[in-house]
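FAQ: What does the model actually see?

It sees only this:
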Amino acid sequence: MINKFFLAIKESLEEHSLDLKQGKLFLPLGLKGKRLTNNVLPSVIRTLSSELNMDFEAEVQNIMPDNYNLNPQRLDFVFKKHGKELIFFEFESLDRSQVYLFKDYSTMDENWNDNKLRYYMGTLEEKIRKNLPLPKYYVSFLVLPDCAVNPYTIWDCNKHYNFFHGSLRKVIYRNPYRFYDGIIKSCARLFLETKISRFGKKIKDFQDRCELIIITCTIKELILSRGRDGFCRQQETRRVINWKI
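And it is asked to produce this:
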């Protein structure tokens, strides 16, 4: 199913080439006034839903376990078939495709409540505890252009997170994909391999039930990376985006 979903995303982006300005809205240009997420993304998702013959809901509340001390997650989109939740889909624009959303939560400020790995683990634990069906996939879609970009907010250099020295901003702007893609996937890989659920199993052992997926959009292409493969670069699936003129 994930391969079909991956190809349908590519086709949906291509279908909206003009709306997306041949991918230019994935650059900092699209962050202004949330032009990408508010104006264009909903149309892309409707096309994707139609391609998949699935229903979808936006801004869906995802309850976390009580001991997480987290507010419910608000999922960007949930894709369903015959009422069954199959795919949780989180869209991370350029300014959110950063380490602060994927760093191992155990070493982070306990007041930071927007960590995708924490939410993924919480999804597993809460639904299994309540004997509810798990989604088949938990997808994070990362916008990371494989080119030089204009300056945008690098939260990782913010004094609250301080993951990187401010001098690295210029390095990031030269190519966000080359800087961030491997680091984020390393965070996810380490999480799967080291985190133990409340049920005594490593999180990687749940990949056959609710697989953690990362899809990267470089503007030039889409890259599918899977939790079951440990986010191994050699096992990624890559497809060129054929933007229409």
